[in-house]
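Worked example 4.2. Below are the chains of a multi-component assembly; read each line carefully before continuing.
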Amino acid sequence: MADDRKKLSMTLGESLRQQGVSRRGFLKYCAATASMMALPPNMVPAVAQALEKARRPSVIWLSFQECTGCTESLTRSHSPSVENLIFDHISLDYHHTLQVASGDAAEAAREAAMHENEGKYIVVVDGSIPLANPGYSAIAGISNLQMLEETVAGAAAVVAVGSCAAFGGLPHANPNPTGAVSVGEIIKDKPVVNVSGCPPIPTVITGVLAHFLTFGSLPELDALGRPMVFFGQSIHDRCYRRPFYDKGLFAETFDDEGARKGWCLFRLGCKGPMTYNACATAKWNQGTSWPVESGHGCLGCSEPDFWDAGGFYNALSIPDSDLTRKTGYVVGAGVALGAAAGALNRSTRAKAAAKHETVTIDDLDKKS
Amino acid sequence: MQRLQDIAIKVESPEGIQASHGNALPILHEILHALQRFSTEGEQSCIDLRSLPFGPGDEEELLRLLGRGEINMTMDALGESTIWETAFSGVWIVDHRNAEGERVALQIEIGSVPQIVFSQQEDIVDAIDRLAAQLEEH
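Applying the procedure described above to all two chains together yields the following structure tokens:
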């Protein structure tokens, strides 16, 4: 306990030096951290300067109506790795799945962390909160709602991890038998960051925590409370298959020529155009691949109510206009030109997403 | 436990050739402009390849086009990093791995030498203390 307190009072720079990590090692750590936070490499000196002085914050992780998939995602990230190193520098004081303590001792740890770090600790929440009947989900006899309210009262900020905590997720899906709501629907007087996804990308979860550790503030958020740096662009805009969409080359089934050649999965129900997330760049399984690269369309799991948004294999609304003509066959230079096409299509896509009518492949064929 | 990169999975296109998705050439253009800026103005720059939406084969194609130059280095700090100059002088690849050998950053650095290669002032101060202490023992 005394060691823990000593560790808490040390800056990250001091802590790493004590572990025998050289300055080069520290700079490497900063380069990886900046990359994880999706910051440009020229920010590395600023990250180094900030991390040198950073003190590890206390984190209380609350799990409500959830499947533990978010924790699975987090813990299966390259282990041990830079992310884990960051975790060594966060004082994770309460987490049902990961903590050794149980029963009264576990609850005492939560209360101690709240008391000792009043106004400074971070609350991470995964899972939605049932309002229909508090008995649907309770921990140590405390309802989820009560535990959330009392834990958040002294927190600096709240991070809602996963689509359940961010938007209600699966428990909130029609007919929502437990009256599940998101964290943001309850907490109005503290900053709430939504790290959506089912589950969220591990490096996005750690990236947000790293941002707080590094800069002592929360990243810029979009209209849905998600960090812009990870959720600022749609899957479609960052998709390496985007040039095929622009050229009008689509897979029609999962085993046709288009599927084998890696063409666009739009007609197979890919929700990439209406989904904002970092899968196309951060990827999954240690950067190995991501759903579209594996040949399956995006499910849209980081968007509100994605479970109720129609079938996963139903194509989105038909685009209002012929994008091929506007973008002028910009195939072959996906990185630079994909971004330009993205800007051009943003309003078109927004309209399509707003209309969001489910159509069949036959309908699309008639239209095209 | 077997690590992911130890599992022998090879992605092949139907023709048996790993196709790329055309993302290497725009990056090469960016590198060319950065190299010109470094040559004329001395401005160093760095590209984080992990932030780019590469498709299968793009990274391999980019590294193939850049080739290998005269210098290869390894750095052992929080895992092994491999650093090499490409066939184009002033264009370096910095491949940072963690202790498990998993990649944590892949960068292209444009400059005389990647910044992380230089001895760092903090380490030099520490080295002076250790060297002096060692001499005192003898």
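Take a moment to check your reading of the output against the notes. Residues 61 and 289 of chain A are 28 Å apart (CA to CA). Chain A touches chain B through 48 residues (CB under 8 Å).
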